[in-house]
Amino acid sequence: MESETGGEHPPRLVVIDDEPQIRRLLQLALEGHGYPVVEAVNGRDGVLAVAQNRPDAVVLDLLLPDMSGVEVIRRIREWSEVPILVLSALGQEKEKVSALDAGADDYLTKPFGIEELLARIRVMLRRALRPAESPLFRSGALEVDLSARRLWIKGEELHLTGTEYALLRLFVRHAGKVLTHRQILQEVWGPKSVEQTHYLRVYIGRLRDKIEVEPARPLLLLTEPGVGYRLALLD
Does the UniProt entry include the keyword Cytoplasm (predicted)? Predict the structure, then answer.
């Protein structure tokens, strides 16, 4: 079967989950859409499966019998930048944020829909295929030239303050990925400001006023409640 990405060699995924029902659901859904799946039932086997198979993406449950999902992410990130989607249960906000801070790219909260799962995986794969050094970025009505420090909405050039631009540049470099409050504050304001979330709310509002067609109904700069923000990859 041809993969949804249209390539001759469909992206291979590693699924790390100790629940047989979830693994079966994920296998049927992913392989039914052209993604070959390698399964692992615990963290140790999962890290080994990633090392041996060099997958295009990983789906990882945060609750594993032998180690935490966060530890699995840390071990994988010692040598690989493979996109990682974490699965969390309701009420696991702290674990979810810890996973993203450790290097996960996205998350889904159980129960989740198959279409949403597939959409998140497509975005992760698109991010991984983007030219790493390209200074040009486009998403929906937004165009950014990082080399020239210029941006446009619907062809009209906009001007940002230094902090607003630093914030947007961070989102562009990680477009499609969830960035936690801590990650953003540390990158833009420094490690001493990681608890100053009010800074972030103010500047996110200012940035939305400039880059969103309807700031009250953002399509580009999306809030991930209790976690952080992401810059959407739109056609």
Answer: yes
